[in-house]
Amino acid sequence: MAQPDRSSTPSASPLWLAYLGLILTPLFWAGNAVVAKGTVGEIPPMSMSFWRWIIALCILLPFGLPGVIRHRDTIRQHWRSILALATFSVGAFNSLLYLAALTTSATNIALINATIPIMVALLAWLILGDRTRPIQALGIALAIAGIVTVVAKGKLSTLTGLQAHPGDLIMVLAVSSWGLFSVLLRRQSVPLPALTFLTAQIAFGAVVILPFYLVDLMFISGGFEVSKSTVPPMLYVAIFPGIMAYACWNHGVHRIGPSKAAIFMYLTPMYAAVLAGLFLGERLSGFHLVGGTLILVGLLLATQARQKR
Asked: What is the reported pLDDT for 5?
């Protein structure tokens, strides 16, 4: 069986690089949400999901294809694991999130998306036997309080006025899908260099999305028009939330574990608030400062608790 190049495995890289990647990942995903929201009238969800990965794959192939060819025996041996990981991540998560945005509010999506660390911790406990210490639970609780403060804009009425929509259930599926991916990524680790694994992951994921995209193209949305207003956002979601975010996330999960990595998901709403202020003209308020402080303190407690184990 082909063995990975040790210089490219997560254990050979410095720990700070894993943390840096996990800090950047939610930034890229926040940009993904802002771009998707801004183009929802021009680019249907399944078109966005499918073509972002096709573009990402085309960008990666010149660099990743040699590794795919070199490690083809390993890929053939572990294709079921790669397919499962690609289905829950590349195939399902963003497709479901884009679909959810059609029938539910951004507040609902943010609240449900904030449960990802809880879902990952739960699945890591059920599948991997991980345990949560009291100090880590406190950190998670503080981070959740920060998330609620931000998405509710400091007003309880924003939360009590929430109503269930079909998109809420879709987001629950999206969160569950990402939780399974994060846990399986640790349990079913594939012995491939990072770039080779990412290339295979995206290729498998694009195949998973293809039939759903074709159905949407032929019978539902009819696709989208390639223009000056659709190409730049498509390139962004392909490169940054696509290639860069997945590479950083994969590395971070391998290096520090799924439960610990999932805590960084709490940064996404904060990043989204800043990006919305910059690009959509929304002003930052006091609740952003309060929420951000709670999130950062929660991150500190949760990550320190994991390091002491």
From this structure: 45
Whole-number Å distance between alpha carbons of 305 and 138: 10
Q: Which two structure tokens, joined as six digits, stand for 181? A: 């991916």
130-176: pLDDT as tens digits: 777 788 778 778 877 877 777 676 666 666 665 556 777 788 899 88
Nearest to 97 by CA among 30, 150, 147: 30
Around Cβ 235, how many Cβ atoms within 10 Å? 15
CA distances from 85 to 115, 127, 128 (A): 20, 15, 16
Helices 194-215, 79-86: inter-axial angle, 10-degree rounding: 60
Q: Under a CB-based contact definition with an 8 Å cutoff, are residues 291 and 146 in contact?
A: yes
Q: What is d(CA 206, CA 53) in angstroms, rounded to the nearest whole number?
A: 6
Tally of CB atoms within 10 A around 56: 27
Q: What is the DSSP letter of 41?
A: T
- Mention every residue, 6+ apart, whose C-beta is less than 8 A from residue 204: 79, 82, 83, 86, 87, 90
- Eight-class DSSP state of 87: I
Cα gap 27→116, rounded to integer Å: 16
Encoded amino acid at 218, one letter: M
